[in-house]
Amino acid sequence: LLRRPAALGAAAARCAPARDSHGPPRQGHGTSKAASLHWTGERAVSVLLLGLLPAAYLCPGPAVDYSLAAALTLHGHWGLGQVITDYVHGDTPIKVANTGLYVLSALTFAGLCYFNYQDVGICKAVAMLWSL
User: Fold this and answer.
1) How many domains does the chain have?
2) Is residue 64 part of a domain?
3) Does residue 87 have a known ligand-binding role?
4) Is 77 annotated as a binding residue?
């Protein structure tokens, strides 16, 4: 009863797409290893942010300020990159959106570093906001 009739097996073989596991990846399909490494990197930055929040409260300082600037910028860059991937379609709009994303991320990181260097820093600024 569990065996498939021969006619159904032949029909399924004709309908299934041919798989070429020995050739190079097809155009537009990234390797699963690169996607896995990117996913792991995203999770690592998220966990790093979870650790930086108590560190910012317990021992504020320049190292934590600049680490927060880098981690927040990278986290936001990857998040907005996913929004672009999901909602922007067409070659030219994707290129324009990605260029805008890189400019925005660079300006964000530069602004946070400037704030850390010239002003009180991210940790002290958040503490000042909480004291209101």
Assistant:
1) 1
2) yes
3) yes
4) no
